[in-house]
Amino acid sequence: MTVTAKHVSRARRVCDLDAATAAAADFLEAVGVDLGSDSLRETPARMARAFAELLTPRDFKLTTFDNDEGYDELVLARSIPIRSVCEHHLLPFVGVAHVGYLPNSRILGLSKLARVVEMFAQGTQVQERLTKQVADWLTEELRPNGVGVVIEAEHLCMTLRGVQAVGARTITSTMLGTLRSDARSRAEFLAAARVGER
Ligand SMILES: Nc1nc2c(ncn2[C@@H]2O[C@H](COP(=O)(O)OP(=O)(O)OP(=O)(O)O)[C@@H](O)[C@H]2O)c(=O)[nH]1
Ligand SMILES: [Zn+2]
């Protein structure tokens, strides 16, 4: 079995924590938060570190294997936790991703299905783009017979504030290859993903 591994990373800009801390202090003052008390004094620096953590994509090692056994049925990781930040309000959206593929000549180390979701989730995002990026990336890297990605998420910008649609969840999906063109494969994927169930 041939194993290949390579380092995968997304482009990013340099994060200046000192500048972010000063800006966070200005921002909090401007929205009326009094930073004078002991418990709030460090808040701008914490806020800067927290956003740096949420917005910086994490690299990972992509490991793939030869599909020696010729396994050609669905491989699906369901309920992969996701957390991301909506690019309109900078508020989190959280939920789960169900990611599957129909192997061709290469199979993916299983944990990498969760790693790729995490890599694209980290940063500012919209759910539709995140869904498609994961599917396109798997297609590019594995040349599989099909890829399916479903994301179910709660956007705090629409549940905590604004319209306050408490409990609303948004479902997005991208199906490619056989999972898009063949109704039976697609139905099998959706049945295994059990969208809406925990
Ligand atoms: N399509 C899409 N929209 C998103 C996502 N995350 C947040 N949004 C939406 O982005 C939109 C931004 O719209 P605006 O009208 O400019 O923002 P707003 O005035 O704060 O809107 P309200 O949330 O309705 O108060 C809102 O409708 C959000 O619900 C996402 O992942 N995908
Ligand atoms: Zn938002």
UniProtKB/TrEMBL annotation:
GO cellular component: cytoplasm
One GO MF term attached to the UniProt entry: GTP cyclohydrolase I activity
Domain (GTP cyclohydrolase I): residue spans on this chain: 22-192
Residues holding Zn(2+): 86, 89, 157
Pfam families: GTP_cyclohydroI
Annotated catalysed reactions: GTP + H2O = 7,8-dihydroneopterin 3'-triphosphate + formate + H(+)
Key words, A-Z: GTP-binding, Hydrolase, Metal-binding, Nucleotide-binding, One-carbon metabolism, Zinc
InterPro entries for the chain: GTP-CH-I_C/QueF, GTP-CH-I_N, GTP_CycHdrlase_I, GTP_CycHdrlase_I_CS, GTP_CycHdrlase_I_dom
Pathway note: Cofactor biosynthesis; 7,8-dihydroneopterin triphosphate biosynthesis; 7,8-dihydroneopterin triphosphate from GTP: step 1/1
Domain of life (superkingdom): Bacteria
EC number in record: 3.5.4.16
GO BP annotations, alphabetical order: one-carbon metabolic process; tetrahydrobiopterin biosynthetic process; tetrahydrofolate biosynthetic process
Enzyme class (EC, first level): hydrolase
SUPFAM superfamilies: Tetrahydrobiopterin biosynthesis enzymes-like
Keyword Hydrolase belongs to the record: yes
Assigned protein family: Belongs to the GTP cyclohydrolase I family.
Subunit structure of this chain's protein: Homopolymer.
Protein's name according to its UniProt entry: GTP cyclohydrolase 1
Organism of provenance: Micromonospora robiginosa
Gene: folE
